[in-house]
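tool_call: predict_structure(chain=1)
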Amino acid sequence: MGSSGREPRGGARRLSVAIAGGALQGLEMTYLAQKAGFETLLLDRRSDAPATGICHRFVAMDLTDHETLTRALGSVDMVLPATENTQALRSLVEWCDENRVPLAFDPGAYAISSSKNASDALFRRLGIPAPTPWPDCSFPVLAKPDGASGSEEVEVFPDLQALEVRFGLLPPRGRVLQAYVTGPSYSIEVMGRPGAYTPLQTTNLEMDRDFGCKRVSAPSTLPSDLTDLFEKMAIHLAEAVGLSGIMDVEAIHHEGQLKVLEIDARFPSQTPIAVYHSTGINMVERLAMIFSHQEENGTSQVPTGPNRGLILEHIRVRDGHLTVCGEQVMTDAGPLHLEVDFFGADEALTSRAPGKDDWVATLMVTGSDLDDAWERRGGVIREIRDRFDVKSYGDEYPDGRFGEVQ
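tool_result:
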């Protein structure tokens, strides 16, 4: 299967991209690819993956099956991987290499960033500030899997007894233990090729009680001097791994210092949509230009004017309760669809349907600045509460704090 052949005004054929994976990364990619005017073909094992509700075409398939890949990808212009499955990624690299189809992915950089042990070793070698590893740090201590991303299996231990009850005297292999640092969290993407990198907008991150990212806002509240430092760190890390494409860097502002938590040399979720609505920069469009060699340094789309305020957050409405949740709540909600002017939000990706009393949504609310976006966001939450007779509101942070409707 290839492009449907539909043409935009002016007669030029639309770029046809295959997005391999329909979960959260795939949802982000599909949304932004269509904002860029691309023709989207989605590939996933699951026929009810979230992105199936917004793609142009969908093929249910095993990404390791080269025969099916050949039938599905016959005339696409580019493949965008949206999976962290090692076998699937290896299969895509092999197929695209054999068939000379551009794959917007850097296996070498990803191999480093997908291992927290390898990433931490890189931070130490480069002198990048990061949380101190156990046992050279004091409690509390955070434990996370070496190869997982996001908040998966993250645990915090207040003292040695709690740590030993969980793991015994020696933590199992495949776990990373380090100081649990607190403070505001930030993210930045860097894009380009060796010798020509561009850092994009820094965004604010907020976590739910289980350390899942529940909200992204922009522009960043990070002071300008630390923003400049964060951008330099991102470029330094990109150069160190020889990045071709995109890499996300997450850091925390702890006791006056930026400490890098992790890097991911893959297309992220949440922050690209936030950056798009705040700045107009479309990371999928830019990624396609990089891998088609139309844009070597990525500088042509960097805005010069003020950025709009943006709040992106995930909510679940169920049984008279509205909860602001980490992004994983969107994974098992089935196919999502896009709604414009969603109870006052500019847009929402949602599972809401008439008569459905358990639904989720990713809200996108903009304003002239961040304060204005927060004010509008409060109106959106109040409208949803009134419309669905919501009795209670939950917005819990890892430290037990609760957010309020502003």
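agent: The CA atoms of residues 289 and 295 lie 5 Å apart. Proceeding to next step.
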